[in-house]
Amino acid sequence: MKIESRLGDITNERVDAIVNAANTTLLGGGGVDGAIHRAAGPELLRECRQLDGCLTGEARITSAYRLPARYIIHTVGPIWHDGSAQEPELLRNCYQHCLRLAAENRVTSIAFPAISTGAYGFPPTLAATIAVKTVQSNPHLDLIRFVCFDRPTAEIYEGLLSG
Fold first, then answer.
1. So where are the chain's domains?
2. Which residues are identified as catalytic?
3. What is the pTM of this model?
4. Are 145 and 6 in contact (CB under 8 A)?
């Protein structure tokens, strides 16, 4: 299994599945979520309406429509308060649920954003540490890629993966 990070736009990733850092409605929003919905097209919104939302820490899978990936795995990360509201456990659950859906759908390559680190305020270094540790124990995938929107976040992942 190869685990890597890169600076880029997750909507351009040519992998079996990309992960969407979604909100609980799954109906689009800002940041990564909005970008994925815009790039995938209106068919994604139609399919997401049928899913009846998603709880924090869980995940749902849809087709990717106009994206180069086959699937989008939507997960709802926790909003950071101070770390005492089970935020680390909920974030770990996001990655575990995404990996389970990937295995169930025979996904061999997946791209993750930095879940919860944008508007949800999760500390980027802690979030990256949880992400890397969680995915390292997954034997079902050939490639796990962390696609970071900005250079500081990419450097955090690069540091964790090289050390």
1. 2-162
2. 33
3. 0.97
4. yes
